[in-house]
Specification:
The chain is an all-alpha fold. The protein contains 17 helices and no strands. Helix 6 packs antiparallel against helix 9, helix 6 runs parallel beside helix 12 and helix 14 packs parallel to helix 17. The N and C termini lie far apart (about 70 Å). About 0% of the residues have low confidence.
Amino acid sequence: MQYKLSYLFFPVVLVKKKSFLTRMNDSLLHLNSLGVKCIHYLQQRYNNLDELFLFACYMWDPRHAYVIYFPLVFYFSHSIGIKVLWAATLSEWLNLALKWLLQEDRPYWWVSEDSDGRELNLTLRQFPITCETGPGSPSGHVMVTTCVLFQIIKALTEKQGILVKVGGWSIYAVVILLVGIARVFIAAHFPHQCLLGFIVGIGLGAAINSLEVTRLTFWHHCLVSCLLFAITMGHYKAMQIIGYNPNHALSLALKWCEKQEYVHVDTTPLYCSMRYVGSLVGLGAALVLGKKYKLVPVIDVRHYILKLVTAFISIFLTRVMFSMVLPEEVIYLYIIAFIHYFLFPFLVVVYVPLCLKLCISRFS
């Protein structure tokens, strides 16, 4: 795998600055070797905490930014909820773009696939959520969590005193650290990949927080979605043109995963692209209907218990929709994924608030 990064970034510079690229490649191999030793140490030393780490990976899965944290926040704050969904979509898109650019390995296959990994003679444990099917850097869990949680913590602490600010951002740091350690523990990422995810995530989170995304129209949502999808497909075709297989990571996952049932199709890069494209278009359309039928005042009702109940109803209905068995045919898989993520904002923004509005009018 020597000069893998070089072929993607600098096909011309490869000839002129081979010594620099060799040093870069050697540095990456050294980082990977240290990372595998770190993972092995964590798995041996803290094997009794595996349930905690698996729970952290599950709770802060990028999918949950859409189907749990967006509806939960949206009913308490219309504007922050929209920012949460925008943060989820943009951070996942940028994460995919960086993964395809960097094309780094994941520990669970590198330790067996690469000659330097085999020389370490270390065995890493695999878990049901270890075998993700995209390149490894930066960590999507860390990056999306950092970006999304930034919107929530910033909103909660913005007008508070110093103690609340310190407490809120301390919780933020602990969550990000726990997610990063958890991803390293299950051998899904090297430590430096989680660090990169944090750096990019917090920068993107701050940028999104400064934007007035609540003022965007339906056509803005469509335009951004089309632009993100066009860049993704252009990147995909560019890799094919230069002779690199965009699904190379999937092949490695199938080759080195201990159990085939650990390999999940909904972790492939193209499936993730259906998620952010469908969500943005769906959000734009749902907000138009929400304003047309004057559902925002219902969402902003001051009864916090009612808001919480409404959020849990939305989360439950969304999870029921996503529990549908996915087809095995790839093209249908992506179509269903797009439809799912296009429809779920309607559940949150239109359907559940509309039912709530009808109930309130009926009993008042």
